[in-house]
Amino acid sequence: MKNVIAIYPGSFDPLTNGHLDLIHRGSLIFDELIVSILHNPEKDPLFTLDERIGMLKEFTGHMENVRVDTFGGLLVDYARQVKARALLRGIRAISDYEYELQMALMNRKLYPELETVFMMPAVSYSYVSSRLVKEIARLGGSVTGLVPKAVEERLQHKVNGKS
Ligand code: PNS
Asked: What is the pLDDT of the chain when averaged over all its residues?
C-alpha cells in the first residue's frame, strides 16, 4: 500500500470555511495531510504565524491524519523534506486556474515527482477568500458563515485594534 503524504500550503490569513472544507476533502483521500503555513518575513499578515497555527490546530485537531506545520523558502524543498508526493490546492473559479496552473507547472519543473492535485470547495464557499474576508471585516461588514465563529471574533478584535 502506498502511503501518500500531501501538503496543503497557504497563507491562511485567516483560516476560512473554504479552507476547512478543502482540508476535510483532502483528509479523506490522502493518508496524511500536512496543512502548512507559509512563513514569509517580507509579508505583513493580519494574524501572526502563531495565531494562524493556533486557529488551524483548533479546527483540524479532530482529523486524525491532518497535522499543522509551517514552512519558509521554496515549497518544493519543504515537500522533499517532509517526503510529500502530492500538493493540494483549491480551485474556486476559472479565475484561479491561470495562477494555479503556472504554479503547478513551475513546481513540477522544480520537483517532477511532486503531483499537484486540484480540488473544488463546496459551491457555497466558491466566492470566499481570506483577502475579501479581511476587507469586509475592516469595513465593518459581516463575515458570518464565511469563517468559523471563533475566527470571526478574533477578526473583529484585530480590525477594532485590540490584540
Ligand atoms: O494561500 P496562498 O497565498 O495562495 O498560498 C500561496 C503559496 C504559499 C502556496 C505560494 O506562495 C508558495 O508556494 N510560496 C512558497 C515559495 C515558492 O515555492 N514559490 C514558488 C512557487 S512556483
From this structure: 95
